[in-house]
Amino acid sequence: MKRLDLKVGFSCNSRCVFCAQGHRRNQGDNSTEELKEEMKESREDGAEMITFTGGEPTIRDDIIDLVAYADDLGYDIIQIQSNGRMFSYMEFSKKIVEAGANEFSPAIHGHKPEVHEAGTRAEGSWKQCYQGIKNLKELDQYVITNTVVTKINYEYLPEITKMLMDLEVDQFQFAFVHPVGWADENFYEVVPKKSKVEPYVHEALDLAEEHPHEPNNIMVEAFPYCFMQGYEEYVSQLYMPDTEIKGQEHVIEDHEEVRKEWDKAKAGKCRECKYFEICEGPWKEYPREYGFDEFEPVEGERIESKEEVVPEEKKELVH
Ligand code: SF4
Known about the structure:
Blueprint: E1 3-7, H1 32-44, E2 49-53, H2 63-73, E3 77-82, H3 90-99, E4 103-106, H4 113-120, H5 125-138, E5 142-149, H6 157-167, E6 171-176, H7 182-185, H8 187-190, H9 194-210, E7 217-221, E8 243-246, E9 251-252, H10 255-263, H11 285-290
Parallel strand pairs: 1-2, 1-8, 2-3, 3-4, 4-5, 5-6, 6-7
Antiparallel strand pairs: 8-9
Helix pairs in contact: 1-2, 2-3, 6-9
Bound molecules: iron/sulfur cluster (SF4).
Iron/sulfur cluster binds next to loops.
């Protein structure tokens, strides 16, 4: 399914210390008409899914109108990527659902206010996001949470997993922090060593497997296979749909190619690794600061296609 990521601007009501767009927040936002034009073009080009992203899309005055327009254009999946705070207002949640939004991706970075808000630097943001998720589930909506893994929260990934299970979210993703924007400016404050994070990710995934409210999908982003031995099927890059990104400065037509060519990096020794063909490597800023010492090429017969590392029932989800 072809997907359009529509960046509506960079304004936001939180100030996450790891925000990849933090340095752009005063650039202004796209106009309603510009966004509608982009939505129309992409729909005519065959996009069936749209993700509203930013900045924070839900604080725009025209968000309900934009979602209704996407619905009129016939997008099948209308996803809202958000810090989740506005969904704590039930009236707002009802309105955006009535306008046509049918998938929600709130970002929750902790299992309690102290952890989440050490990242968001916005008092009250945990309670709002938590309540927002509850409201969306009450409205029977499909909820895919995103948790940015940083130095602040990596030791709590099992606790965060338990919370997400209790909330009965439909999917969740742990995304290793991308050190650009404020996350790069605050690199040593926010970027943990992957080898330290690894056991917590594995513990969280084990818990998720055992829990009676097991969500049907769990993913880990920007965490290469050498840290995911035995957990390869959870690597998010296996499942990402073809994505076109439209923003203020540019249009990216093939996000996977851009990630591989420009955003990610592998070491010379990666050529010896059995995952070399399918692995994107870490965000390139990571080895710039920490090097590649932790990355151990994995021995074994070379993996040629992504389908080889997933169980039978997930093969049709691979992109
Ligand atoms: S190719 Fe490199 S980064 Fe990827 S799994 Fe192998 S050693 Fe790790």
